[in-house]
Amino acid sequence: MADDIKISIKNLYKIFGPTPDVALEHVKQGMNKADLLDQHNHVLGLRDINVDILDGKITVIMGLSGSGKSTLIRHLNRLIEPTAGEIQLNGEDVLELKEGQLRQLRREQMSMVFQKFALLPHKTVLENAGMALNIRGSSVADFESEAVKWLARVGLEGNENQFPHQLSGGMQQRVGIARALVSNSPVMLMDEAFSALDPLIRSDMQDLLLELQGELQKTIVFITHDLDEALKLSDHLVILKDGEVVQQGDPQDILLNPNDPYIVAFINDINRARVLRVRSVMNRTVDNDVDYAGDLLENDNLETVLSRSGGDLDKVFRVVRNGEAVGSLSMKELTLALVPTGEPTEETAA
């Protein structure tokens, strides 16, 4: 089922340094990241992370540099070993896997798309796309049809025999996505996968990912430092600061109900009309006596509603799902939703 937990992270800690177990006790007693480094010369990577990643959904983990987001994603396939905690995949403890089992997990269960593309320069686009199957023992002849299919799906039809240096950055990243899809792994880990791309190409890649996800329903863990990207892609959003989860949940709910000045600072300048959805601000009642100005879909953004209203604040729209009325939205309520929740403090704005 779509709401099943695919990956469960429980009480996860990571401390970098020569005696992490000793430093862990100080962290559990409340020592912060700065003091741990200053007093004990250890770096706090992650503190008591608890996140459930749902099957078939996109979980986005975001934060500024040093927040621990890339450290966290590398724990899922044990590229980094934790200091303490649990990581379960389909209910099984990843930390208990032996070396051979761990290799199998990385080859068959969790594919990874990197920021720097990680393509082999001496291999063709086709060979790079089929790398996971090649490592499992398949020949080019075995995986060629599958690789050709997914390369075409990501817009690279006809480029199979080119080499990475002959492709643009956006095209190289498409090869990376095709490689993850050819592997047929149920989980895709994407670490700042689009951060190195130009804005327009980046937006195209985001759209492509959402289109593919609509068809394939993979479990995707996506790392980013960009709030716009996080809000566009995520079903579940996790925001980190100094190795700790500050807030997590439905991105729409976080935008409307930030629980920390750090989050307020993040969302203060966001284009709320573009990212807020009708479903997040509508009334869940329908009054048949109201003269509605028209119908909206629950996933329409508020920018769309503003355009349809023509600036008339007296208009009220009906909200429909699968042709049935599920609520209403007045322009006055919409206007209130566009007002930011609060202002960042001097500390968070610094």
UniProtKB/TrEMBL annotation:
Instruction: Return any one Pfam family short name.
Output: ABC_tran
Q: Which UniProt keywords apply?
A: ATP-binding, Nucleotide-binding, Transport
Q: Quote the Gene3D superfamilies the UniProt record gives.
A: P-loop containing nucleotide triphosphate hydrolases
What processes does the entry annotate via GO biological process terms?
response to stress
Q: Does the keyword Nucleotide-binding apply?
A: yes
Q: Where is the ABC transporter domain?
A: 31-267
* Record SMART domains: AAA
Q: Which GO terms describe its molecular function?
A: ATP binding; ATP hydrolysis activity
- Record-annotated membrane-spanning stretches: none
The similarity annotation says:
Belongs to the ABC transporter superfamily.
Protein name per Swiss-Prot or TrEMBL: ABC transporter domain-containing protein
Q: Which organism is it from?
A: marine sediment metagenome
